[in-house]
């Protein structure tokens, strides 16, 4: 990786939950970009260990994270807090 990219790999076993795992990847990207102001790109992936070669990967740019991913997570948290 270059000095402005972070890569996160979540090693998984068992069943693949496509939608939930995609959301999880976007949350990892949001945390990383929010925490590290030097980070311009986050590569995230799920590697399914019991199914060699089965991966779910996504690359997020800092702009994409701050323009769409973080606002979406913020809205979701506010909705969840309102129900509590």
Compute the number of strand runs: 3
Q: Looking across the biggest beta sheet, what order are the strands in? A: 1-2-3
The main pleated sheet reads as: 3 strands, mixed
Question: Rounded to an integer, what's the Rg over CA atoms?
Answer: 14 Å
Global outline: flat
Class per helix and strand makeup: alpha+beta
Strand content: 25-35%
Mean pLDDT: 94
What distance separates the N and C termini?
41 Å
Helicity, in percent? Answer: 40-55%
Helix/strand order, N-terminal first: EHEEH
> Unreliable runs, pLDDT <50, ≥5 residues?
none
Tally of alpha and pi helices? 2
Word description of this protein:
The chain has 84 residues and is an alpha+beta fold. Helices cover 48% and strands 27% of the residues. The chain has 2 helices and 3 strands. Helix 1 crosses helix 2. The model has no long low-confidence stretch (mean pLDDT 94).
Helix and strand topology:
Blueprint: E1 5-12, H1 18-35, E2 41-48, E3 55-61, H2 62-83
Parallel strand pairs: 1-2
Antiparallel strand pairs: 2-3
Quick tags:
84 residues, alpha+beta
Short account of what is shown:
The protein is of the alpha+beta class and 84 residues long. Helix content is 48%, strand content 27%. It contains 2 helices and 3 strands; from the N terminus they run E-H-E-E-H.
């Amino acid at each position: 990786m270059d000095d402005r990219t972070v890569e996160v790999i979540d090693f998984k076993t068992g069943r693949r939950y496509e939608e939930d795992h995609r959301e999880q990847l976007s949350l990892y990207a949001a945390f990383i970009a929010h925490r590290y102001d030097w980070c311009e790109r986050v590569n995230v992936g799920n590697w399914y260990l019991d199914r060699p070669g089965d991966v779910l990967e996504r690359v997020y740019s800092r702009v994409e994270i701050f323009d769409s991913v973080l606002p979406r997570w913020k809205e979701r948290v506010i909705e969840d807090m309102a129900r509590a």
